[in-house]
Structures are given as C-alpha cells and as structure tokens.
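Intended use. Records like the one below are meant for learning the mapping from a protein sequence to its folded structure. Do not use them to infer anything beyond what is encoded.
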Amino acid sequence: MKKEDCVIYKGKFFQIEWYYDANGNSQPYDYYESCDLNQKRKFLMLCQRMGDFGKINDITKFRNEGDGIFAFKPQPDRYLAFFKKGSKIIVTNAFRKSGDKMPNNEKSLAVKKREDYLNRNPDIEEETK
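Structure written out for the chain above:
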C-alpha cells in the first residue's frame, strides 16, 4: 500500500487512513476487503460521520478503549484506531468481535502499530483525545 492509497475518507473534521507497515502491508485494509458489502457500508458510514462531524456520540458505534486507542464498532466488527495531529485518524487493526470484551492482544497490537507508525513518521505527533 502506498501513502496516497491509504485514505479511507476525508471529511471536514478528520481524514481517516489505513495503517500500513514498512513493507506496505495493511491488516485492517485486508480485513475490510474480506468483508461483505453490508459490513463495508457500516464501517464507511461511521468513517463518514466521524470525518464530517468530528464525533460519534453513540458508544455502541465508537468508543475510547483507553491507552489512546479508539474503536469504530460496526457490529460485529471492530476497527481500532488512534488520533494524530493534523486531524487524522489512523486505523491500525481490525477483527470480528466474538465475546463481551475486546481481546487484550488486539488492543496491544494497536498500541504497537501506533508506536511503529509514529517512529516511521517522526514529524507527526500523536494527538491526545
């Protein structure tokens, strides 16, 4: 994945992008591509709402998961993300939620991907929300 291909949605308040590693691979994008059209639509509608209005008040659709990680929640999928300066949101990983709680390994993975992203882009700072 190239930097110019990583944009999911660009709105008035936020630009939402896929995380990709140093080799250009993007797990959340690959996950999204494996979903059916209805699941894709649900996720894109949440991205559009966040991008255009700057917030999603419904915690069943978007939630702060702690440690600077947030979750887009198009049931039953989860897309974990973080905010960065410049009004951007980076989607780090995605998975299908099967239990009541988010798996700790998914949140840990999101934190590691955030650190990797910020290390590879030292001119970009994380935005605290």
